[in-house]
Amino acid sequence: MGRRALPKVDIACSYQGAGPQAIKAFADAGAAGIVTAGTGAGGLSPAMTEARDDAVKNGVVMVSASRTGSGAVYDPHVRGVIGAQDLTPQKARLLLLLSLATTHNEHRIQTWFHTFGTGQFTARH
User: Fold this and answer.
1) Helix or strand or coil: residue 116?
2) Which Pfam family is an annotated match for this chain, by its short name (predicted)?
3) pLDDT tens column, 65-97
4) Per the domain annotation, does 123 fall within a domain?
5) Cβ atoms within 10 A of the Cβ of 118, count?
6) Whole-prediction pTM value?
7) pLDDT digit string (tens) for 44-56?
8) Most exposed residue of 43, 55, 75, 105, measured as fewest CB within 10 angstroms of its CB?
């Protein structure tokens, strides 16, 4: 797979009072996926939450991760948003990039995050 074949996946960092600009800009620039690096358990500012929901409506796959360095982010029960589990935002971006290079099926991508995003993955021989 060539570099041009890889989908565009970006990371948007949240903080108290963060605006919607990063998510909107990434979505407008053609991002196939966006990982949000949120506070605590992946929390976003209200403006970023609204921008995330708009991006999902426009077909962007969203993954919610924590920027704190530890702790899991589980599926937030928001349609179109996948929890990064134990992955850092950077690792979640790589998994989302590889996932979107293979499929756009949200359920399959979510399953891969549940499988590879936890510290409990063991390879089968």
Assistant:
1) helix
2) Asparaginase_C
3) 998 877 777 766 788 899 999 999 999 999 999
4) no
5) 12
6) 0.89
7) 999 999 999 999 9
8) 105
- In the chain, the number of structural domains is 1
Phi, psi of 7 (to 5 degrees): -75, 160
**Alpha carbon distance 53, 55 (integer Å):** 5
Q: What is the CATH number of the domain that holds 73?
A: 3.40.50.40
Compute the distance between CA of residue 86 and CA of residue 34 in angstroms, rounded to an integer: 17
Query: What is the reported pLDDT for 66?
Result: 92
Give one DSSP letter per residue of 46-86, joined into a string: HHHHHHHHHHHHTT-EEEEEESSSSS-B---S-TTEEE-BT
Decide if 122 is inside a domain: no
Place of tokens 């530890």: 70
Average pLDDT, the chain: 90
d(CA 35, CA 41): 14
Measure the CA–CA gap between 64 and 86, rounded to whole angstroms. 11
Residue 119 placed within a domain: no
CA distance 4 to 55: 23
